[in-house]
Amino acid sequence: MSKNKVLNLKDKIDGNEMDLSLCNLTEVPVKELAAFPKVTVLDLSCNNITSLPLEFCSLSHLVKVDLSKNLMTVLPDDLGRLGNLQHLDLYNNKLTILPVSFSQLKNLKWLDLKDNPLEINLAKAAGDCLDEKQCKQCAARVLQHMRILQDEVDKERERRFLKDKELEKKKETKQREREAKEKEARKRDKAEEKERKRKEYNAHMAALAIQEQKNKRKEEKKKRNGQMAADKKAAAESAPKAQRRSLIGLLFKLLLLGLAGVVGVCQLTGLKEEAVCVPINIAVDDGLSWVREQEVDVRVRELVEEVDIRARELLQKLSSLVPQLMEPIGVVPTATEPMETVEN
């Protein structure tokens, strides 16, 4: 309101009372009323007020309020904050119910609810309110009725709270179960992934081992083939040499045998006087004489004696064969002269 209207509110004050009836008000000037905390009696009857603002409930200094003959359909939910209210006139409005917080008006002693389209149970509790006594009874019975409603509301609120809590608990349980399942699924997936990797690793290692074995076998086979080739090559190279050595040895043996035969023929037969045998006999005699004259080691002498013995045995064998060889050609062998031994 403007400053002039504030001054007009002051004009409406008489002691602790303020009379705003018949002012054609559609709203309650709550802010202006709050400026007069000493006013405990407020008359707002016979106006066009349809509802009270929430701020009206902050005027806790009010003791008596007359809102009769207005157009109110509802009262604010926090009406119970008017803890000092003792007298409330709601005659001839359009109220059907009262806010649950109405039960908190513990100091209320007088109440008039006539000519309101009240809900049936509330109307029974309110009664007729035809005189002072009935209005006091109305206040007591309506407060009791509203307390019952308050209890029901509290129980319903508690029931809803418990239900919501139970639903929340179930929701949390489901959430935990879902999280546990997801965790178990992740754990299972990780285990499967680990097992898959382990199998892949084992398969890889097995493949490497097989490949290594194959390479090893190839290498061994290659070595064997190389060794066989080398052996074949060596055998091929050594065969002619062996054959040559054996052939040379055979020729040498034949040569020695021939020489021994010639020496035997020249020494043991009548041919030793022939021109062919004379140089051979001289060479043999010179060789034996040279051996006698040399100062050689005992072992060498023993070796020469052994050779002499073997030569004599060979000559004796040959002497037995020579007559047989000579008979076809008419040669008669003479008596052999013994060969001189090598003196020590």
TrEMBL record:
Key words, A-Z: Coiled coil, Endoplasmic reticulum, Leucine-rich repeat, Membrane, Nucleus, Repeat, Transmembrane, Transmembrane helix
Alphabetized InterPro entries for the sequence: Leu-rich_rpt, Leu-rich_rpt_typical-subtyp, LRR_dom_sf, LRR_domain-containing
Location within or outside the cell: Endoplasmic reticulum membrane; Microsome membrane; Nucleus
A GO CC annotation given for this chain: nucleus
SUPFAM superfamilies: L domain-like
Basic and acidic residues composition bias: residue spans: 169-202
Region (Disordered) location: 169-239
Secretion signal, residue range per the UniProt entry: none
Principal cellular location given in the protein's record: endoplasmic reticulum
Highest taxon of the lineage: Eukaryota
Membrane-topology annotation of the record: Single-pass type II membrane protein
Pfam families, A to Z: LRR_1, LRR_8
Summary of subunit composition and partner proteins: Interacts with SGO1.
Protein function: Required for nuclear import of FGF1.
Protein name, entry field: Leucine-rich repeat-containing protein 59
Gene from which this protein is expressed: LOC120046680
